[in-house]
């Protein structure tokens, strides 16, 4: 495996390596790189966006073996790490200059844009990075950082040469049309790009459909509608066919909107593009209504989904409170992660029990769900239960014989936990000779089909613009917000793991306090969850150990 280590300029010179200026952007007005010897005292670290200079860190080999995580050889070949003093590590994204040489650069058209003329500093400095973690102690290492998103002073495309395409894949999510609109309008209005095309019906549209020309006028009102105007589908990913069509049509910027499976596909497309030596930027915009994309703060559409889930919970509460021993049962989306169920429960305050995939539960016996239901009905005469679709799948499998099946995206098809739980509760109350009325509400497709709300619209705009700036600067990446700042994240970091609710975290404790439900956990479960959190908190980053591999000594930010 290859090791990608950036040497300080003085070390490069000592090794006979030619030293050139940053390709990204010269020092912005009012900012100068540090000169002279590095400071001896460790710098305090509290900002969410930190400016660093490679000249300040002469000991860049100090953290070569700082990580225990390993990647497959195929992925490790594309990992790019830049190391610095005080435990600093930049997990960088691929750039054209990693595999193409002597590429010309051009002034960013934004420098002449009237809308940006009042901005004090509208170009992101080459050394701006965003930390993955911001809660540290005074002696903590600075930790893993990602390249900050935003416009660069030099770009790798002239506006008239850009041919961009946009594709949406996977399930629906609030905000898809907003992202499409802002990609089209941003390319056109900020960078004067005229050739923008939509790929219809997911990945298969690259090779089975005509490309759809898109203009700011044609997408003007689409953000007011749910779904995606381009259509979507699961599966259909054929890397060779897709890249063949990208090459044949002269596309040089590909914007891919979709979940972790879609981002894996984007990564494969990038790797094939690189193998062929094509000057094509691949920008992924992560999309999942479940909010289970790793690294990023949250995915677009999540706020809208939680807001819409409130309507279903409100309806369940009205139904339950209007009947004697009434139960309102609401099933929400959440295949592997219960974020929608958790946040909707916390926002509602009408929910008596929330069940999610991360927290196992049981039905019968002391401390079980049935005992809690009986207790709650005696105390309050009604109750509301919220269950994520991925909860209790192991319990259902024990009572219903069903063959494992998967959808076109490779996801396991889930059994209907809401319907199963409804029948189980009915049977229990019948055996106990308890009068009870239960109403089951499944708003799944209503929630994901709505247009995005105001906050998600703004978030979608920022994601789209950040993706455009990165592609114009020659990077390939997944874009996302990390600790409140937009960053470019390597594909493998958002596809290797899932973001899940931590049941040992204070947020889950707040929920238990709000609902007064039992945790359903044994001490063994709690210990196992804490151990899993400890392993996850180490935030391993792949480090390649071979000294002179494909990426050795190439600057991580893509300079020549």
From TrEMBL:
Residues 531-560 are annotated as: Disordered. The keyword Translocase does not apply. It catalyses: beta-D-fructose 6-phosphate + ATP = beta-D-fructose 1,6-bisphosphate + ADP + H(+). Its EC number is 2.7.1.11. It is an enzyme of class 2 (transferase). It comes from Oryza barthii. This is ATP-dependent 6-phosphofructokinase. Pathway: Carbohydrate degradation; glycolysis; D-glyceraldehyde 3-phosphate and glycerone phosphate from D-glucose: step 3/4. Mg(2+) binds at residue 260. The active site is at residue 290. The lineage of its organism: Eukaryota, Viridiplantae, Streptophyta, Embryophyta, Tracheophyta. Catalyzes the phosphorylation of D-fructose 6-phosphate to fructose 1,6-bisphosphate by ATP, the first committing step of glycolysis. Residues 164-469 form the Phosphofructokinase domain. ATP binds at residues 171, 234-235, 259-262. Belongs to the phosphofructokinase type A (PFKA) family. PPi-dependent PFK group II subfamily. Atypical ATP-dependent clade 'X' sub-subfamily. Allosterically activated by AMP. Residues 545-560 have a biased composition (Basic and acidic residues). It holds the Pfam family PFK. PANTHER family: ATP-DEPENDENT 6-PHOSPHOFRUCTOKINASE 1. The gene is PFK.
């Amino acid at each position: 495996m290859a090791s990608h280590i950036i040497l300080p300029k003085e070390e490069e010179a000592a090794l006979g390596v030619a030293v050139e200026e940053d390709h990204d952007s010269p020092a912005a007005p009012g900012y100068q790189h540090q000169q002279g010897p590095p400071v001896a005292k460790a710098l305090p670290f509290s900002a969410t966006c930190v400016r660093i200079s490679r000249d300040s860190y002469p000991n860049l080999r100090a953290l070569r073996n700082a990580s225990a995580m390993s990647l497959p050889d195929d992925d490790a070949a594309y990992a790019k790490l830049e190391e610095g003093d005080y435990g600093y590590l930049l997990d960088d994204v691929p750039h054209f200059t990693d595999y193409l040489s002597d590429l010309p650069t051009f002034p960013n058209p934004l420098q002449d844009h009237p809308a940006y003329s009042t901005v004090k500093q509208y170009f992101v400095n080459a050394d701006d990075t965003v930390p993955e973690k911001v809660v540290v102690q005074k002696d903590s290492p600075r930790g893993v950082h990602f390249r900050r998103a935003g416009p660069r002073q030099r770009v790798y495309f002239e506006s008239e040469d850009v041919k961009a395409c946009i594709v949406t894949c996977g399930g629906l999510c609030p905000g898809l049309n907003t992202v499409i609109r802002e990609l089209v309008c941003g390319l056109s209005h900020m960078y004067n790009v005229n050739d923008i095309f939509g790929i219809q019906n997911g990945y298969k549209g690259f090779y089975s459909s005509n490309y759809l020309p898109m203009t700011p006028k044609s997408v003007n009102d689409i953000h007011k509608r749910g779904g995606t105007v381009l259509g979507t589908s699961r599966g259909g990913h054929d890397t060779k066919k897709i890249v063949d069509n990208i090459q044949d049509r002269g596309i040089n910027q590909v914007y891919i909107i979709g979940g972790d499976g879609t981002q894996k596909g984007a990564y494969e497309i990038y790797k094939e593009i690189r193998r062929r030596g094509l000057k094509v930027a691949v920008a992924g915009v992560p999309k999942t209504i479940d909010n289970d994309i790793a690294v990023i703060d949250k995915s677009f559409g999540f706020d809208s989904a939680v807001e819409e889930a409130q309507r279903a919970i409100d309806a369940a509460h009205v139904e339950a409170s209007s009947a004697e021993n009434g139960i309102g049962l609401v099933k929400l989306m959440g295949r592997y992660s219960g974020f929608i169920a958790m946040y909707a429960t916390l926002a509602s305050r009408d929910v008596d029990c929330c069940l999610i995939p991360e927290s196992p539960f049981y039905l019968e016996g002391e401390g079980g769900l049935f005992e809690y239901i009986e207790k709650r009905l005696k105390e309050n005469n009604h109750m509301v239960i919220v269950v994520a679709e991925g909860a209790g799948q192991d319990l259902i499998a024990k009572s219903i014989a069903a063959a494992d099946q998967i959808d076109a995206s490779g996801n396991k098809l889930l059994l209907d936990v809401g319907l199963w739980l409804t029948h189980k509760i009915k049977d229990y109350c019948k055996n106990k000779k308890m009068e009870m009325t239960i109403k089951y509400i499944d708003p799944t497709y209503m929630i994901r089909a709505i247009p995005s709300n105001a906050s998600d619209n703004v978030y979608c705009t920022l994601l789209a613009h950040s993706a455009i700036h990165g592609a114009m600067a020659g990077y390939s990446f997944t874009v996302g917000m990390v600790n409140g700042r937009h960053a470019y994240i390597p594909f493998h970091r958002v596809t290797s793991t899932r973001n899940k609710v931590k049941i040992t975290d204070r947020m889950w404790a707040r929920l238990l306090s709000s609902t007064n439900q039992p945790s359903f956990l044994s001490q063994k479960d709690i210990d196992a969850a804490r151990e899993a959190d400890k392993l996850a908190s180490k935030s391993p980053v792949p480090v390649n150990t071979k000294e002179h591999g494909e990426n050795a000594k190439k600057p991580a930010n893509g300079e020549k």
